[in-house]
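// run 5 | inverse folding | seed 20
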């Protein structure tokens, strides 16, 4: 409720601090996903101050605020310089990986519509920027996006928003890299874009970018490299001594690449860059409208009015760390990753999936361990009880359930403690046994029409696995994860939507 009279700032800040007390900590390295800490508070402080300085500048109209154009050129230029482009490389500063990906897919879709016979037919009478007349006319003519099953869900979201059909391609069960022959088989005359990840988030491995990009190019199809998590990481790891294959704009056939600065750029959230190999493709990401009697709209991004705060924060982070700062973070990140992989491999009952080429590590149970496989979701709860957050990843497409760790610049100083906690938690999970899923619950959930459930019934269902949606606090998440893991993806999605809506009701 809005207070009748304005409240003093100190009171507001105290309330915010109280609210945040229940959050996961954003600094210190004990949260191994979501947050990126340099371990250097002065860098984050510089970013906060620049963020606040630019906060009220509206990126809606570049002619009104030339400061943001200058900053955006510097930030996009820095990313282009690192990723095989130069000062002329066209790019867009966006709010994050999802928005960069959304724009890459929109550019590819509109390029396909404008330049191919199949696209022209499917597009029908739709206006540029329309969300997919072709898709609505019939799935058999919908534009298609070819992507590895390990690609980030932002592509599924983009496809969903833009009237595009996803064609998933399997990955090798040992290396977790996309199968090139399967990509070849998936490309058709409705393919608007082929996607590869450098690296993929789930196992931290780099898809065969050069082979897939060459293949796409030979079929006249654009190729996007999702380097959202790796774009500002892999070059520093390479300089620090890691073997990193070519993955950026230098690779023939790569037509666009996304690189998030709010991940390994260590910038505050709201910062990503999308680069294109040519300016004509960037223009297809833009949206203009003069179809109303108000101000003219020319947007490079999904958002129209948007704060230049994240741009200021990203610029300040890049400038205050500089090359030597990022190289040092790359060195410590590489050292910590090697130590983590080695340490986990030595813990009985655990193994690392694939051979991570970046600093993203997936830890799974050894299915052949004496006494049975450890329940990784129970392990995650045990680690949480010891103050460490390891991110659960559900089984999918034949890839087993596992726990994700994003190693960052701050991890090294705590890596031995992390390994100790993982080993203790693994032992505790072994003793506890698998999560106690109520008999028949996954089957029950899979059989009910989740859309038709009323909130009270859904709340009861959640309570049966230990989740209190009324704010009464939740037990561990192992049972919830185990139930989700036992469901097909479409049912998982339906449950998650119900869950979110119940949380906010
Ligand atoms: C490879 C990859 N792509 C895309 C994204 C989406 O980024 P965002 O959460 O900034 O939208 C992520 C996020 O982790 C990612 O790892």
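// decoded
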């Amino acid at each position: 409720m809005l207070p009748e009279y304005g409240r003093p700032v100190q009171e507001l800040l105290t309330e915010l601090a109280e609210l945040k007390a229940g959050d996961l900590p954003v600094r210190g390295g004990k949260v191994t996903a979501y947050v990126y800490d340099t371990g250097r508070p002065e860098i984050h402080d510089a970013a906060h101050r620049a963020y606040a300085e630019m906060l009220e500048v509206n990126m809606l109209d570049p002619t009104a605020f030339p400061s943001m154009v200058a900053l955006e050129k510097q930030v996009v230029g820095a990313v282009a310089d690192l990723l095989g482009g130069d000062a002329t490389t066209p790019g867009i500063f966006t709010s994050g990986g999802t928005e960069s990906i959304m724009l890459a897919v929109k550019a590819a879709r509109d390029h396909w519509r404008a330049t191919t016979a199949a696209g022209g037919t499917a597009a029908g009478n739709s206006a540029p920027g329309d969300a997919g007349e072709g898709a609505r006319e019939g799935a058999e003519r919908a534009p298609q996006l070819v992507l590895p099953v390990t690609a980030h869900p932002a592509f599924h979201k983009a496809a969903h928003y833009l009237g595009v059909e996803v064609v998933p391609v399997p990955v090798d069960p040992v290396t977790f890299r996309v199968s090139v022959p399967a990509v070849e088989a998936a490309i058709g005359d409705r393919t608007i874009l082929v996607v590869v990840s450098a690296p993929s988030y789930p196992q931290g491995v780099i898809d065969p970018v050069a082979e897939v990009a060459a293949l796409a190019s030979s079929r006249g199809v654009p190729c996007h490299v999702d380097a959202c998590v790796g774009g500002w990481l892999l070059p520093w790891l390479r300089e620090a001594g890691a073997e990193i294959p070519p993955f950026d704009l230098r690779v023939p056939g790569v037509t666009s690449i996304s690189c998030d600065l709010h991940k390994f750029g260590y910038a505050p959230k709201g910062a990503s860059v999308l680069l294109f190999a040519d300016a004509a493709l960037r223009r297809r990401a833009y949206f203009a409208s003069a179809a109303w009697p108000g101000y003219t709209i020319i947007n490079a991004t999904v958002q129209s009015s948007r704060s230049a705060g994240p741009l200021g924060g990203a610029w300040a982070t890049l400038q205050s760390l500089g090359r030597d700062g990022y190289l040092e973070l790359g060195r410590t990140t590489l050292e910590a990753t090697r130590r983590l992989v080695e340490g986990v491999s030595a813990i009985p009952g655990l193994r690392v999936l694939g051979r991570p080429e970046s600093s993203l590590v997936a830890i799974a149970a050894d299915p052949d361990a004496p006494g049975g496989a450890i329940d990784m979701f129970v392990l995650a709860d045990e680690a949480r009880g010891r103050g460490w957050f390891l991110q659960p990843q559900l089984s999918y497409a034949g890839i087993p359930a596992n726990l994700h760790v994003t190693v960052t610049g701050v991890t090294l100083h705590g890596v031995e403690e992390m390994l100790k906690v993982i080993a203790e938690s693994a032992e505790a999970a072994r003793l506890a046994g698998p999560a106690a899923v109520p008999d028949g619950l996954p089957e029950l959930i899979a059989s009910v029409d989740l859309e038709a459930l009323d909130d009270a019934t859904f709340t009861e269902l959640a309570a049966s696995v230990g989740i209190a949606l009324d704010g009464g606090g939740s037990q561990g998440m192992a049972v919830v994860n185990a139930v989700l893991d036992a469901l097909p993806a479409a049912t998982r999605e339906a449950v998650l939507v119900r869950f979110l809506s119940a949380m906010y009701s």
